[in-house]
Amino acid sequence: MTEDVVRFFNAQLGQDLTPIFDQYLRRASLPTLELAFDEKA
Q1: Which residues form the domain of 16?
Q2: DSSP 16
């Protein structure tokens, strides 16, 4: 089940990625990818 996969990734990475999975898996339209870069890094 999708919830099992989300739980697995959250546990393995030690972060709550549920909002990201919700945005990509539970919406009909694809979200706009926005990236920000730190030019000094």
Answers
A1: 1-30
A2: -
Distance CA 22, CA 16 (A): 11
Question: Which tokens go with 23?
Answer: 């945005």
Q: 10 with 18: CB under 8 angstroms? A: yes
What is the C-alpha separation between 41 and 18, in angstroms, rounded? 28
- Whether residue 36 is contained in a domain is answered as no
Closest among 30, 29, 32, 6 to 19, alpha carbons compared? 6
Residue 4 lies in a domain: yes
pTM score, two decimals? 0.62
One pLDDT digit (tens) per residue for the chain, 41 residues: 989 999 999 999 999 999 989 888 888 888 788 888 998 87
